[in-house]
Amino acid sequence: MSQFAINLLFVGASFALYIGIAIWARAGSTKDFYVAGGGVHPVTNGMATAADWMSAASFISMAGLLASGGYANSTFLMGWTGGYVILAMLLAPYLRKFGKFTVPDFIGDRFYSNTARLVAVICLIVASITYVIGQMTGAGVAFSRFLEVSNTWGIWIAAFIVFLYAVFGGMKGITYTQVAQYIVLIIAYTIPAVFISLELTGNPIPGLGLFSTHTESGVPLLAKLDDVINALGFRDYTADVDNKLNMVLFTMSLMVGTAGLPHVIIRFFTVPKVADARWSAGWALVFIALLYLTAPAVGSMARLNLMTTVYPDMAGQVESYEDAATNPILYSDRPEWVRTWEETGLITFDDKNGDGRVQVYNDGNDAFAETATQRGWNGSELNVNNDILVLANPEIANLPSWVIGLIAAGGIAAALSTAAGLLLAISSAISHDLIKTMINPKISEKGEMLAARISMAGAILLATFLGLNPPGFAAQTVALAFGIAGASLFPVLMMGIFSKRVNNKGAVAGMLTGLGTTLLYIFTYLGWFFIPETNMLPNTPDNWILGISPLSFGAVGAIFNFAVAFTVSNATEEPPQEIQDLVESVRFPKGAGTAVDH
Amino acid sequence: MADDKANAAAYWKANVRLITGCLIVWAFVSYGCAILFRPLLAGIPVGGTDLGFWFAQQGSILTFIGIIFFYAWKMNRLDKQFGLGE
To answer: Model pTM?
Structure first.
């Protein structure tokens, strides 16, 4: 059977499974549609949350980011998991006790203001749309490679599948498809990682293999990797960073962003009890950690494998890395996987010095330029897209072709599950908070469901369009969405629970400040609405205020949000007594029913 | 009624104290051990690198899981103790 047929089989079988589950669990009422009927077991919910939240960025891009950035990109690991700690202690149980369907529901009621509700809806839509672009791009990469179609077709196929199961199944369908998707994606991620770890270190657990000895050379894997890339002019993989402020702020932005992302928060509305919301956050993190403890191993091992593929002399025990680095492979001898990826344009080769060999090194390093000239090199010749590392891993490690089919299904599952969760958050904000609560409170349940489905279809079309014209590669766009959610929604949710003093005016002013400053900072460097060439300052560390990158600004926006909200609230009147009672009541679990409608 | 109020206030105070403690550990392992204090941990070797690197890539995640389960367990006990559970 050809590789294409195997991919088709795996991807097709997993799709059939998701659609089957969606039909089995189709939503009959708005309660099914918004909170899956409210009876989901915490472990099941933890698994669904893990799939919901681990997106194409986690599955496809993160190992690549770690491979290229080493220690400096550990921020993604800590930021994306650390948010669950805040979520479990500061938000999930109280919002579950509050017992409504959506995030703007809480903000609108707690701050007794439809303006606050509207601002929350806008923040939610901006963050979710930014995020969903990343998913569509990710799905496009996976589809175009494995189904051998163009990127455009890949994105359209993804849109169609999400439409089918999200529009009909609602939260109920999505919850159970996400459980299936989690299982597919975690198996797909760990199997190749186990084999690669065994091959390089003899340790079957990749997370432990990362800190073990490299079998072929007898030195620790990370020390080996440092030596190899050092000889090619790259910084040590494990090197410390200079700008610690930026690293702290970036980690913090991802943490508060995780805690502020509406599609993650609403998952905690589906469990039966407040205590379950707390456990559920823990289970979600356990399931996420299975992938997140493996990813650093995948990143470093893929980088080492890639380098030793190009420089075979560097693989075993090496006397002098200087000498080994002078003997790259002939282009005509390149392995099969390089050929297949060249066809997608995600690996490109340009023989700059015309010697027929493949040189890869850090040509941006001025100190290394002299060495490179001595070796007769004229620029790095192989360009490998970061996003392909996980997808190409089984081929790099010579694993059987069914593993490649499995990885294809897993990557697509990761992108689709998150896209579905986001689209649900968007559509419930529109149908429930905008139409039902603000525009037409008399709408029938049937009418509200129809509105939810229409707005979901609209959101899918918009997401597809933006996926076809993306502002950056998957993980970066996702990081922006986290900044926006963290700066606008997280602070106001937290203040709504932990302060009785913050009032409607404070909340609105805070949200607008957080969203406004963060967007302004991002657009300054990345272009207005991400339109290329409209940025006011070049996006380089020299131009950043205090060295804070646009991706790290979410934490600063959140601080502004808190500061403005408290200042404005203290200058204006106290919230009315019934609101203070509401705050009091969300603080303890007693008396929580299942999530209810108005 | 007044007792109820005092009871709820005590429960909330215990909750906030627990959260503060957990957040200190949370910040210590991630921002502390993995980023700011990494140079201080440079002398402790772990598999070809140092302890700070391990905290950044694995240690903090494992600690996060521990914190959440500890918090959930402790809160469920507080719920019962103050009679405010479901």
So the answer is: 0.91
